[in-house]
């Protein structure tokens, strides 16, 4: 592998960012504060808490949302209107070390399922002696959704959706894409990555246009158009700041886990899994979702033409939530 300068590594970090819009961010809000949408914390262990925010219909069917990298629970606001229309209760959660969630030393991708189970026990009321919920994992949140599909099928999870999911390390013949290169760089250069994540978060506040332009250079055109608009740019700035509220540790831990063996027996998953990917995604290759669908016997793959990594969640989000809530959907595959 050729050597990279500090600037090159920072640029690669920017390219791999997967943050989305929040559709009701007041103009007066600054990155130094948490957006006004009420967040709360739930205890899941001794001195351990998960940060949570909810969107949509509070009486609707519960769907847990797992964010991308670097991002946080607030990313799910892109689906807020869709959730209301589908009477879906969208419960977005910070992973350990992100946003409002406590760090969890020694955590694994599979241990996240245990946290989600405890969270579901707290926030979901049982109906007819049974609690039911679904899960949506976006980008780096995808493997965590896969872990829950494996572990929680007998404890209330009825469906799972993976959107623009990162590549499993076991898929060695699938190219990494820009997002995979980013994760690999952080794994190989953790000390440098720690410093540069902080530098990049500061740059987003001080020179936002330059930061976002650098981020989008190697993304799909449809993603570039979306993220360079003022509305989405401001959302990106807030996402980076909130994801690094406790520093870069959560992001680095995620990078280490995502580039190590997931230890998930994909062939044993029995929960219905819907896998979505944009045909134009330059961040994570479409082949990663093709391979994942081959390995999960209960999966269905949808490839959407003319969509990228970020844009797919916005344009097809309502169909995703409809299936997660009711099992009904209309196919827009290419």
Structure description:
This protein is an alpha/beta fold and 334 residues long. 40% of the residues lie in helices and 16% in strands. It is built from 12 helices and 8 strands. It has an 8-stranded mixed β-sheet with strand order 1-2-4-3-5-6-7-8, with helices on both faces. Strand 5, helix 4 and strand 6 form a beta-alpha-beta unit. The chain is globular and about 50 Å long. The N terminus is likely disordered.
End-to-end Cα distance, whole Å, is: 35 Å
Total helical elements? 12
CATH superfamily: Alpha/Beta hydrolase fold, catalytic domain
* Helix and strand composition category: alpha/beta
Bin the helical content. 40-55%
Strand content: 15-25%
Number of strands: 8
Order of helices and strands: HEEEHEHEHEHHHHHHEHEH
The radius of gyration computed from the alpha-carbon positions, rounded to a whole number of angstroms, is 18 Å
Which strand order spans the largest sheet, edge to edge or round the barrel? 1-2-4-3-5-6-7-8
Q: What is the arithmetic mean of pLDDT?
A: 85
CATH architecture title:
3-Layer(aba) Sandwich
Query: Spans with pLDDT under 50 lasting ≥5 residues?
Result: 1-6, 12-36
CATH class: Alpha Beta
Query: Largest sheet, described in full?
Result: 8 strands, mixed
Number of domains: 1
């Amino acid at each position: 592998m050729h050597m990279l300068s500090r600037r090159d590594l920072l640029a690669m970090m920017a390219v791999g960012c997967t943050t989305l819009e929040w559709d009701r961010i007041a103009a007066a809000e600054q990155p130094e504060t948490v957006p006004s949408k009420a967040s709360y914390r739930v205890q899941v262990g001794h001195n351990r808490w998960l940060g949570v925010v909810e969107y949509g219909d509070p009486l609707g069917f519960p769907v847990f949302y797992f964010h991308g990298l670097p991002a946080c629970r607030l990313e799910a606001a892109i689906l807020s209107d869709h959730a209301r229309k589908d009477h879906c209760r969208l419960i977005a959660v910070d992973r350990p070390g992100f946003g409002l969630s406590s760090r969890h030393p020694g955590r694994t991708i599979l241990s996240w399922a245990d946290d989600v189970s405890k969270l579901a026990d707290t926030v979901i009321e049982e109906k007819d002696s049974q609690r039911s919920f679904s899960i949506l994992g976006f980008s780096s949140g995808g493997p965590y959704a896969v872990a829950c599909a494996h572990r929680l099928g007998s404890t209330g999870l009825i469906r799972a959706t993976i959107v623009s999911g990162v590549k499993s390390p076991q898929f060695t013949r699938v190219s990494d894409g820009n997002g995979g290169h980013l994760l690999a760089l952080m794994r190989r250069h953790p000390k440098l990555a720690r410093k540069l994540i902080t530098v990049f978060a500061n740059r987003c506040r001080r020179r936002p246009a330059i930061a976002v332009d650098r981020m989008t250079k190697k993304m799909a055109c449809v993603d570039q158009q979306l993220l360079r608009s003022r509305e989405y740019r401001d959302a990106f700035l807030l996402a980076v700041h909130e994801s690094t509220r406790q520093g870069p540790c959560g992001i680095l831990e995620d990078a280490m886990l995502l580039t190590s063996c997931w230890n998930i027996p994909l062939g044993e998953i029995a929960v219905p899994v819907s896998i979505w990917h944009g045909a134009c995604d330059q961040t994570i290759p479409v082949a990663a979702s093709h391979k994942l669908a081959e390995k999960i016997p209960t999966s269905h793959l949808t490839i959407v033409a003319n969509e990228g990594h970020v844009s797919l969640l916005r344009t097809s989000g309502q169909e995703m939530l409809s299936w997660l809530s009711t099992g009904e959907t209309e196919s827009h595959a290419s």
